[in-house]
Amino acid sequence: MALRNGSRKISFEVLGVDGESDPSEHGRRKRRHRASKRKKKLLDRADCVDPHMTPLENGGACNGIELDADRYCAGGGSVVYEEVREATVCAVVEARESESEVPTAVRGGIEGFNFGKLRQRNFSCGSSDDLAFSVVRDEKEEGSVKGSPVEKPTNEPDRNVATKLETVESLDWKRIMAEDPNCLLSVEKSPVTYFLEEMYNGNSLRSTTTLGNEKERERVYDTIFRLPWRCELLIDVGFFVCFDSFLSLLTVMPARIMMAIWRLLKTRQFKRLSTMEISDFGCFLIMTCGVVLLQRTDISLIYHMIRGQGTIKLYVVYNVLEIFDKLCQSFNGDVLQTLFLSAEGLANCPHESIRFWIWRFVSDQALAVVASIVHSFILLAQAITLSTCIVAHNNALLALLVSNNFAEIKSNVFKRYSMDNVHSLVYFDSVERFHISSFILFVLAQNILEAEGPWFQSFLINILLVYVCEMVIDIIKHSFIAKFNDIKPIAYSEFLEDLCKQTLNMQTEGAKKNLTFVPLAPACVVIRVLTPVYSANLPNNPLPWRLFWILLFSAMTYVMLTSLKVLIGMGLQKHATWYVDRCRRRKHHFHED
């Protein structure tokens, strides 16, 4: 027999073959005799019952009544029902009558068990009908047992089963009320009380915002004030470094080539060229091929093709060309480095391997020419697209600026960047600023040649709009990149220090931090644009006089570009020297402190 607490159900199954019960008196006497024997068996086992153990731990007996299904297999369901019920009642009554004789432990076990009502459930299993009986709580019998004069000792544990199910800790309402007595008030408060508490209970946005600290405050002021001017200063210095390289290509390189040719004509002896001279001849060949091919390009045809485009809008064309411009800029830098490496090998190789280095230099030169020409055509198409937007009267320039700049913010701001990536991104912005300047020069040349009526004022307004938008977008982009990636404004000062060291040809920590700019393609575009302007202003004289005016204009242009090169180069040198010394002194004072 299985003894359990009253809150649980005692289930047992009896297989019955016959649904009829024995109605004879002899059968009843036999059942009473068996019940009395089971009661005596219960009294004999009283000494081995532990009151602090569960009924199942006390031997698995339920008041001495063993319900063995095998003993009742031959009887009917009603017979078993009557037998169990009468045996249970007899056990309870006789146990109460002999309470004084029964030990305390057994008496506690008997009283602690709530006998319930038997319910019969019929179910079929295979070919026979099975009967399952389940003992459930009888509230009336429980009340009658509690109302009896028998009292439990105070030192014995209460074995009465609770009438309510125990809840889990998270749903224990009594525990919650004990910990927070005001929780019921918060649940049952009125709308007016709730609103008054919200008014006088701290910050109105306390549920969605938190209290900041000094670090958050510094980050706010870094984003608004400290970082923008450092970022713009770095981009501007990078722009002038690119401009200085561009002027070197147009002034220093031709001077070196003329000196090499003059030495060859003077000595009339061929001498192996140095690395610098071979590199200059290679760049000159690249620029010459680019200018010749661009001169054969009809700009008016490209202009009308872009302006009459109905499927793809102008700002889409400009964005596509800008992406290819950045790709070509990166690739051409690697190609030019390869060309300079081959030039160094050709200048210093022994005579046995000179054929190998010549073929290597020729292959690198051909690749550099092709890459530079492709980049030149991309820049020319981009300049024509910007010119089309400026001269249009349907707000095409505004649409171009909005789409291009905010697409740039979207593609850069919400990304994770390392310090080196931000460094490279700043240099890309400097190169882009220089490319935009070359596009503006193209637009100016086109207006000089083809514009009618007063155009200079509107040109200045449009150019100012382009530069201001570009500057504002770069500041916003870098400010929020620094905010999201936790980059301090002092990092941009370190970037500027590296750029100044590059200007002074000082050794930096890594080559990846150097500004890489290839001015060959922009130089080809500028020469292609300015040549028609000079041609339009030449006087209609005989050929000798035309050659004279061409040489004069070329000499004047070279002198102006050389003066500008000297001015910008010396200014960059002086600024770089001052800034590097300043950073060095600051680090020295910091280490002393």
UniProtKB/TrEMBL annotation:
It is a multi-pass membrane protein. It is found in: Membrane. The chain crosses the membrane at residues 233-253, 273-294, 366-384, 515-535, 547-568. Keywords: Membrane, Transmembrane, Transmembrane helix. Residues 27-42 have a biased composition (Basic residues). It comes from the Eukaryota. GO terms for cellular component: endoplasmic reticulum membrane. InterPro entries: Tatp1. The keyword Transmembrane helix applies. Pfam families: DUF747. Residues 14-43 are annotated as: Disordered. Belongs to the TAPT1 family. This is Protein POLLEN DEFECTIVE IN GUIDANCE 1.
